[in-house]
Amino acid sequence: MFLVYFAIIILIPLWAQMKVKSAYRKYSQIPASSGLTGAQVARKILDNNGLYHVKVEETHGILSDHYDPRTKTVRLSSNNYHGTSVAGAAVAAHEVGHALQDAQDYAFLRFRHALVPVANLGSNLSWILILIGILAGISGFLLLGIVCMAAAVLFQIVTLPVEFNASSRAMDEIVAAGIIRNDEERETRKVLDAAALTYVAAALVAVMELVRLILMYTGMASEEE
């Protein structure tokens, strides 16, 4: 039973990663009709929304694209920064979606930012406490570990509306700005949906693991009574 469970929590993230890489690889070979690079797409959407102060920079790595709220910078991986593909436009627009959330004080984004230190602490402490609880047979330590892990799981769950909203904003912006044609919307959405799968998979696995530990704790606590 445990082997099946661990196979599932390993396979789900792997499947999601394969989906996003496959979609990105496919649509990074298809040029966008606008001929704009990812950097130009990001700059255009930012300027259309009056976010002239937000910078667009190139960063190393593959699919390392992100928005940094501390420096107000959209960072795009080299392929997306310089490339003119449908995938590059989708990724650039998605990261700008986070910049729009930041500028408009999107509640879930603010909540996620507030959770970062708590989630990091919980993630680092949880397994230490959980292992002590399991190995020593002390349910109290296991419970503390579960509470710490719950903070990290909450972060994963809150990430979902943040990412889905950024993708929704991305689609609205690139369509309104004429960056993609109507016949390119389907391909763009596939890239965004595939990327969202990775966050869904991570949240699902985190919740499954938390539930398993809670069941383990209830069993241990009942034995101590």
From TrEMBL:
The keyword Translocase does not apply. The chain crosses the membrane at residues 127-155, 191-215. Keywords: Membrane, Transmembrane, Transmembrane helix. PANTHER family: MEMBRANE PROTEASE YUGP-RELATED. This is Zinc metallopeptidase. It comes from Calidifontibacillus erzurumensis.
